[in-house]
Structure formats: structure tokens, C-alpha cells
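INTERNAL AUDIT FORM
Audit reference: QA-55
Scope: verify that the stored structure record matches its stored sequence.
Auditor: D.O.
Record contents follow.
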Amino acid sequence: MFKVIHKSDKTKLRIGEIKTKRGVIQTPFFMPDATRAVVKNTCNEELKKIGLEAMVVNTYHLYLQPGMDLIKKAGGVNKFMNFSKPLLSDSGGFQVFSLIHRSKEMGKIYDTHVEFKSPIDGSWHELTPEKSIQIQFDLGVDMMVCLDDCPPNEFSREDLEDSVDRTIKWAGRCKKEYLSQIKKRKIKAEEAPLLFGVIQGGAELDLREKCARELIKLNFDGYGFGARPVDKDGNFLEEVLQFTADLIPEDKLRFALGIGTPEDIVRCANMGWDMFDCVIPTREGRHGRLFRMSDVGCRISDFNNKFYSSININNAKFADDFNPINLNSELLELREYSLAYLHHLFKIKDPLGARLASLNNLEFYNRLMLGIR
């Protein structure tokens, strides 16, 4: 399923490839979030042109809307959104836990399951490790993630210990249900989705080690870095990320969930992380921030905090800037529309502006990963 092809002699960066039922993915790679089965303001043809390899869909959101009956009727989420390349589904845990941690009225966490209230219609739902895996099989994705207990940054040591214990127990239940679904659905080995365990433990290295040790016993295809990669003060957890990456076996995928900014992706790739996902390129694009690669070589050793820049298209200085949005883009629109026109689109709040900015940023991220590789 995964093999390392090359390792850097200067850092822990490794180049590899993943074989999935919908194609081969070169690593390291970045996945934009197609949260509700769409990367906001884009269409599949545009994403193909910029070389997108895979995307992440959100189990929690798709379960609530449009619902699994409709997605199963469509033949799975790939057919529903007409996307032929690999998809990864999250477990739904991050969203459910975030919902509950923000407001206790929205649900409750038990050792066996989670109960939560839908923010759409107020209906109540129960999510178990088994149900999360069942939903992801119904989605029909290439890669799926175990349900884990995702704690907020300000959790105490005692709370983190409970989170780790619950994550370990739930991972075992997820793996058991995964094997049951493979047998029940008569899925061939070469078409089986990859399954990821998630390593929790906050900034406590011993808890990260405990969680990784127990998850590795379950022999997942890959392992993710759980919870946010910053502490409660917003400091990047560089030591924790490197420590966690080193715990994961060489022949297993390393998934840095929710990372992130271009510089954090480069940092984590140099630590040996293989996979990244984040809403940043499209979210920032919708607010008028465009990423641009600086005029430097594409070797990983050249990358530092100056390897890219960003502009805010809302700035008045772009009102009469008739240079193209991106002269070197694979997309005709980005080559031919001017920065002045894009500035105008944001001023009048036309959705075309958000679309062009999002596509610019997605292409930047794809080229960033090509440069790293």
C-alpha cells in the first residue's frame, strides 16, 4: 500500500507513494478539505488542471447533510461529487468533540460513545467507533480514520490521560469493525481502504508515546498527529511533532492532520510527515489572501520563511494593477484576469473573486508539494 522511495540525507524528509483503489499518490502530499463533498468555490475540472491528487471529506457533515441514504443511493461519495481520484474521510470526531467542548448543551462524551445535537435541526445522534467506521465504508473512500477523543489545547494532564485511554480503546473497536466490514462487504485486499489511527497526548511526550505504542500494536496503515499542532498560547509544537513522527514505524504513513501553513508543512515534511490537510488555502482565498511562490529554487534545502509571500487583494494598491493574477498558472483564468479585476470582484463581493483566489492558493499548495518532493 505504501513504500518509501527516497530519503533525504540532510533531513528526515522521505519521498514515497501510496497505492489506493483509485490511483497512486506521491508523498508528501497535501489534501484540501472538501468538507461537504465540495472544495468551496471550485469545480473538479479546475482541480484536475492544477494537479490535485486527493481530497478530504468530512464524515460528520455528510452524515448530517445530505445524509447517508442519499450518498449510498448515489453509489458513494466519489460518484456523488463526480470525483474519480482518492478521497480520505475523517472520523467525525474532531467536529463532534469541538461542538461539545464549545457548549456542554450540544452533547456529552462517554467512555463508550458520544451523543451530540445536530446544529442543523436540533436532532440528537449517537456516534460510536463502530458507527464511524460504518459511515466511512458507506462513503466508499480510499482512506479512513479511526474515531478518537480529540482534546482542546487547555486540557489538564488528567484529562489528557483520559483522552489517550479512550482513544486507544476506540481504536481497537474501530479496527475490529473495519475487519468485520471488509468481510461483510466482500472487499478484495487490493481494494480495501487504508485505515489510520490517531495519536493523542497533547504536549505530554510520555502520553504521545503511550498512545503510539498501543496503536502500533493494532497495525494500522498509517498514524495521525491528533489535536491541534499548537499549544494554548499558539506556539507550534515542533518538539512534540518530531517526537511523534519518530515513534511511527518507517513503513507506515504519517498524517499531520490539520497542518497547515506553508512553512509548517515544510517543517513537518522535514520531520518525516507524509500527509497534510487544511482549510487554509480556500479559507484565506475567500478573504482575499493570495499565496505566491518566491523566486527561489525548488530544492527543500532552499526553503525558509521567505520561500513564499502573500498579498491581500483588498489592498487599494491593486486597484490599478493590471498584471495577471498568476502568469505561470495552468488555469487560463488566472493567466488572463488581472489583479485589478480581482480587486474589483472582491470590492463588489462577486463570488468569482473567491473562486479565483481559492484556485490560485490551491495551485500554490500543489506546487509547494511538488517542490518539496
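Auditor finding: record pair retrieved intact. The chain has two domains: 2-277, 289-372.
Action required: none
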